[in-house]
Amino acid sequence: MKKLSISLLLLLLTLSLSACNFNDEVDEEAPVILEVSEIQREFVEGATAPNWATYITALDNIDGDISILSTMVDTDNVDMDTIGTFDVIYTVEDEAGNITSFTITITIIEYTEYTVGPVQ
Ligand SMILES: [Ca+2]
Question: Hey, what domains does the chain have and what are their CATH numbers?
């Protein structure tokens, strides 16, 4: 009986300690953003914008994989109809409020026969 009591006590102690640790853990690490490989950065003027959310992945130390939503992508500066370079800005936040920003620069090039390849 005494052994059982001690075992139960140890079990409770372990449980309460692990619960404490979990609660005391302050997440101060912001998510890590990685660019997806082989993304298209160059577009012909007037091209349809891709789904920018598929251009990055985000991994957090506590939250794990974070789904990239369109609300995390700022394309206010991007004009697919104008030749030039534009920044697609990503802002990803974990549950604890740590924020990581990431920028991908894209280029809009002039439409020419060359850009669509030679006529057969
Ligand atoms: Ca975090």
Answer: 24-109 (2.60.40.10)
